[in-house]
Amino acid sequence: MTNRRRGTEPGALGGARGAVRRTGIPVIDAETVAAYGLPGHLRSVPDEIDAHDLPVTGALPPELDGRYIRNGPNLLPGMSGGHMQTGPGMLHGVRLRGGRAEWYRNRWVRTGVFEGRSLVRPDGTIDLTAPSANTHVVHHAGRVFALVEVGLPQEVTPDLATVGPCDFGGRLTTAMTAHPKQDPATGDLHFFGYGMRPPFLTYHRLDARGDLVHSREVAVPAGTMTHDFAITEHYVVWLDLPMTFQPALAGRGMPYGWDDAYGARLGVMRHDRPDAPVQWFEIDPCFVFHVANAHEDAGRIVLDAVRYSPGEFAALWELLSRAVEPPSPSAPAVGRARLHRWTLDPARGTAREEPLDDRAVEYPTLDDDRTGRPARHVYAVTGTEPLSRDECAIVKYDTAAGTAVSCPLGPATMIGEAVFVPAGGPRDEDGGWLVAIATTRDGTASRLLVLDAADLPAGPVAAVDLPRGVPTGFHGSWIPAPEEGRT
Ligand SMILES: [Fe+2]
């Protein structure tokens, strides 16, 4: 890229150009950081800062008017013990407007855990306002929520300040998945909550105005760790996979473990009929963290998701569940997962499954306007499984042609989830931009990359230098300007 340039005006929030301002949160001492022994790109940052008029390499598309916000775990000063990739949620936000990167800021999400409260009440129940909201950040009906699958949504402002837990006027009595799905036609937000105790699985729907208009229990045999699900135009697709709640695992992070006896099944349930039954389909045992998409095809339901074999998942879960120890420098990468397709035929009661690609990927994304509809393009990232030394790349699948192209990022770079931002005006499905945070493996520096989704191999069209290394986290969203409220 060429044409390196800098902003020419004072920061929109009144800060001096290029200045970094710190809030009152104290720094993590070096001893605490060392105790965690995490690879540099996973290490927590010690404080909250603001920076303005960020240096840009290349040319930011002027139509990108909004903010990219990404969530991830970030330990607090003095925290000890814990598990890999746990910690209070921290939001990292970058404001883009008019071809400029106006600001970066990062803020912890101030949940009960952040304030030092326990997850468990004296009566043994879980305080749903307490868990670290560290997994995703989404916007719906003019509100922004930080999410984790074991707690209530935590509302935050577009400027990343915590508002507090939200139960939609007392109607939401379960946790909320970090992966809700917005129907592009109705604007409804479909989601679910799962728990260790009955009801194990509950389906919910917010309407386009943000009111919780429907909740119903979905009968499953046990509490299973259910990270994601899918919708189509008419159906919800459930993943009931063999990671069951096992009290004996308490103290190892998420108290869920592989259960060979449980089996694995996908379920389809019409979401336009309040009491519709679930039709279940037995599948080969596996685990799925993330769905790419689902759609209907001549009466069949097609689900594309990133699938872990039992062996690959067992190794990953062992690493993620144990108290953090410095991994051996020679430890092999674990948790290789691949894009996979299940085709469910409700009329025949059959499930067919097939791998779509052999490379290891995670964090699938797509044009959200295609959620629940046929989508030709799916995006994902490679090289992100724990302890991987493979070169990271952003991948673009063409599921119709069965092909893929990628943008390799070099051996020193880790990449996070790539979020699709639609271009303005009439466009093809891949008419838009991919936005992702890239961090050096040693964690010392980060850039916000912007790529042309229609021409991934060309590389980034722009890169914003962030004022610090941003730990590789989990999920993020682009929040366009008209919905964001304040500047
Ligand atoms: Fe996730």
User: How many angstroms separate the termini?
Assistant: 29 Å
Given helix and strand content, the structural type is mainly beta
Number of helices: 2
CATH topology type: Neuraminidase
> Mean pLDDT score, rounded?
88
Coarse shape:
globular
Say how many strands there are.
Answer: 34
Give the C-level CATH assignment.
Mainly Beta
Enumerate the strands of the largest sheet in spatial order, edge to edge or round the barrel.
Answer: 1-2-6-5-4-34
Strand content: 35-45%
Q: Estimate nothing, just give the exact number of structural domains.
A: 1
The unreliable regions are: 1-19, 23-36
Helix content: under 10%
Family: Belongs to the carotenoid oxygenase family.
EC number: 1.13.11.-
Cofactor: Fe(2+)
InterPro entries: Carotenoid_Oase
Describe the structure.
It is a single chain. By secondary structure, this protein is mainly β. It has a single domain, classed as TolB, C-terminal domain (Neuraminidase, 6 Propeller). 4% of the residues lie in helices and 39% in strands. The chain is built from two helices and 34 strands. It has helices spanning 30-36, 310-321; strands spanning 20-22, 49-52, 56-58, 66-73, 89-97, 100-108, 136-140, 143-147, 154-156, 162-165, 181-182, 189-194, 201-206, 212-217, 230-231, 235-240, 243-245, 256-258, 265-270, 278-282, 287-297, 300-308, 338-345, 350-355, 361-365, 377-382, 393-398, 403-408, 413-415, 419-422, 432-440, 446-452, 460-465, 476-480. The strands form eight sheets. The protein has a six-stranded antiparallel sheet, with no helix packed on it. The longest helix has 12 residues, at 310-321. It is globular, with a radius of gyration of 21 Å. The model is unreliable at 1-19 and 23-36 (pLDDT under 50). The structure holds fe (ii) ion. The site of fe (ii) ion has 8 residues, from strand 21. Residues 135, 178-179, 227, 289-290, 474-475 line the site of fe (ii) ion.
